[in-house]
Amino acid sequence: MILDHLESFAGLPVADFTTFEPGSADLPPADAVAWRLDCGWDEDRTFDRMWREFLDTVATDRSARRSSAPGGAGITTAFSR
């Protein structure tokens, strides 16, 4: 279905950033999940704003990870400010 979202990506479970409360202690480590950032149709929460919130909330400094995608292509996940 068009509204279904992936549950895993590049061998990692997907975590939806929008489901966590700001300052939540329940956040998984940045390199333990594939983060889903979805601002959808919310005009009050643009992607730029969500990206800043994500970088301010998730410890992205420990997020350099290399994994193997289907077909053997390597994917490097890293975040920058």
Summarize the structure in words:
The protein has 81 residues and is an alpha+beta fold. The protein has one domain (8-77). Helices cover 14% and strands 22% of the residues. It has one helix at residues 47-57; strands at 8-9, 12-16, 34-36, 65-68, 74-77. The strands form two sheets. Strands 1-2-3 form a three-stranded mixed sheet, with no helix packed on it.
What is shown here, in short?
With 81 residues, the protein is an alpha+beta fold. It contains 1 helix and 5 strands, in the order βββαββ.
How big a fraction of the residues is strand?
Answer: 15-25%
Shape: globular
Widest sheet: strand order?
A: 1-2-3
Q: Work out the number of β strands.
A: 5
Number of helices: 1
Mean pLDDT across the residues is: 74
Based on helices, strands and strand pairing, what is the structural class? alpha+beta
Helix-strand pattern: EEEHEE
**Spatial separation of the terminal alpha carbons:** 34 Å
Q: Count the domains.
A: 1
Which residues form runs of ≥5 with pLDDT under 50? 71-77
Radius of gyration equals 13 Å
What is the topological layout?
Layout: E1 8-9, E2 12-16, E3 34-36, H1 47-57, E4 65-68, E5 74-77
Parallel strand pairs: 2-3
Antiparallel strand pairs: 1-2, 4-5
What attributes characterize this protein structure?
single chain; 81 residues; alpha+beta; two-stranded antiparallel ribbon; 1 helix; 5 strands; 14% helix; globular
